[in-house]
User: Fold this.
Amino acid sequence: MRNRFFVAVLIVVISFIARVDAAPAPTTAPAVGGGRAGSAGAGGEALPTMQQLNQMLSEGKSQDVLRHVAKLLALKGEAAKGYDRYDLLCLRGEGALRTKANTMAIDAFAQAARATEDSQKQAVARATELLIRRAKPLGYVPRVAAPAPANAQADAAAAKAKPGTPIPYIEAADRKRAFAAMLIDEMAVVDPKVKAATKSEALPPIIDAIKSLGDLRAVEIAAKGTSTETKGLSADLGTHAHHLISDTIRPMSKRVEECWRSASRYSISGNDVNGLWGLTSAEQYDLKAVIATCEKVQPVASELATVTDRAELIADAQAAQKLHARASEVLSYDYANAGRYNKDPKKPAGAR
Assistant:
């Protein structure tokens, strides 16, 4: 009887083993992320592709777009490599616009401009930010009447805009018209500024004009795809600014080296060397003024170089940056201990 029982148990065990051997191997779970569009996110949800996100936007699912973009922007490392940060931030801006969250849209396009090295993309994002800032709830309201197109077949973007009549700017075709109208308005403001700055012998009016030129260039690229008008408008200003910046940097450089030579003299009492003389209060004031001026000049020269494509302005920006570093070095040097306790032990050029 016991033998039959053991035989029965043995048969059951053998049958179970056979079923386990015959069962298919378990499927390996998909790896999370990898950063590629369409892969799984951290919560197991498939990550949408950019095409899918744009489709959602066109279908009016702006809240879904904003939700997905927030998750995608938070991705790190390999998981983030399948997405372009500029494109995601622009999508956030578009989604925010459609939900009337204009503050979020402005911030998104501003971030997008900083997220790319492509000058055309930077310009479009900057122009879109400006458009949202300057538009009214019903759309962008032109201030200046547009001239009638020379060609009767001109596209809608060049069509005559009526001052005081809002132009919607949510959809692409409308936005093109809004950019075209804003370009005319910006040109009317910037042109007299540039003419006045070209005659100025001081940097402040030039700095103000250059900031406006940067905005004008961005709007022109968004409206037309080129910056031909802005370059033409700023050509004389570029030459004038270069001469003014050069004339400003040259004496400042000389003054910085005078401060260094004076402050780096050894202080000797009897047979003892008591460190270096150090800076007088007047020298400290002059060095701080040089630093402050360079902080204004460097971005201005860079901006104008971008607008005009002039190599000498790029050199001016680099010279301002170099002078800023040198003046900071001379100002912060450890004179009392002959440089012994400087955070950066490297002595400025000319140190003994």
